[in-house]
Design brief:
The chain is mainly alpha-helical. Helix content is 73%, strand content 1%. The chain has a domain of 210 residues: MetI-like (MetI-like fold), CATH 1.10.3720.
């Protein structure tokens, strides 16, 4: 009897050790990730907040000044106000432009056409190359005052004098057209958004379209009453991603327009870069970063709270 109890106790201890090993092994493997997260993510976030409360010239002495940076930004910094207007305009007009272009192309590419996979690949490629320096240089060559677009307009005007002349647009040097030109560049990079929309469209049951056809609904009515409501969760997902990307846009403004003309494309990220690495005011740049983070959080929350009125889930 005692021998059986001893064996049972030993077996229980062995099982306990095995369970501990099964728990500890994954935790040990996650230690490098936790360390990387702590040192390269969490610590810099708190350090950035501390810097935002200081006067911290990169090559000078750091002094604590409390909320003076934030007061200066909101009350006296006209460049910040111009940057905020440029960023919000880019977000409000550029985000729907990307979503509309991506959804339209995904809808077209959802049809079973010969060679459609080639077109899907072709439309996805710009999203891979969109942030590339070479693509930004190409955009400059296309939209500068004597670039490809204006040359094509000139040739059309000369070839068809019987038509009214199409006016030449100064795409990159006009306060009105420069932001729109960058929005076009962003819309040209819709490939990843388009693929997500395409996957959502392919998951819509064909039986719903068949039932709608029997009831007399076709074309736009099917899209509005069946397709769009079913894919609204994906629309929300893409809207949040594009919103975040537009709030943090840097490459296009830096490489194509350098924030001009007259600060009309001086987006938040570009202004933060200018304060941190051109003027070497790290404390001021950190305060700008936290304001940008707060703005992103507010608009993302608004998007999520509004989703209950227009996003439809299966349940």
């Amino acid at each position: 009897m005692a021998l059986q109890k001893a064996k049972a106790t030993k077996a229980t201890k062995t099982k306990s050790k095995i369970k501990k090993r099964m728990v500890m092994a994954p935790l040990m493997m996650l230690i490098p990730w936790f360390l990387g997260m702590a040192f390269f993510r969490v610590y810099p976030i708190f350090l950035s907040f501390w810097y935002s409360l200081t006067n911290f010239p990169l090559l000078g002495e750091r002094t604590f000044i409390g909320l003076d940076n934030f007061r200066q930004i909101f009350l006296n910094d006209t460049t910040f106000h111009a940057s905020a207007i440029a960023t919000l305009r880019y977000v409000f007009f550029g985000t729907p432009m990307v979503l509309a272009a991506a959804l339209f192309i995904a809808f077209v590419l959802n049809f079973k056409l010969k060679g459609v996979n080639i077109f899907r690949t072709a439309y996805y490629v710009p999203s891979i190359l969109g942030g590339n320096v070479a693509v930004s240089i190409l955009w400059v060559q296309m939209f500068r005052n004597n670039g490809l677009i204006n040359s094509a307009i000139n040739n059309f005007n000369n070839a068809t004098p019987e038509f009214a002349n199409i006016p030449i647009v100064f795409w990159l040097t006009s306060e009105t057209w420069a932001p729109f030109t960058l929005m076009l560049l962003s819309a040209w990079q819709f490939g990843s958004v388009m693929l997500i929309f395409l996957a959502a469209l392919q998951n819509v049951s064909p039986s719903l379209y068949e039932a709608a056809s029997i009831d007399g609904a076709k074309g736009w009515r099917q899209f509005r009453s069946i397709t769009l409501p079913i894919i609204t969760p994906v629309v929300l997902f893409n809207a949040v991603n594009v919103l975040l990307r537009h709030f943090q846009e840097f490459n296009s403004a830096f490489l194509v327009t350098s924030g001009g003309p007259n600060q009309s494309t001086l987006f938040f990220s570009l202004y933060i870069y200018d304060m941190a690495f051109q003027r070497l005011q790290m404390g001021y740049a950190s305060a700008l970063t936290w304001i940008s983070l707060a703005a992103i959080g507010v608009f993302t929350l608004i998007l999520f709270f509004s989703s209950k009125y227009w996003v439809h889930y299966n349940d």
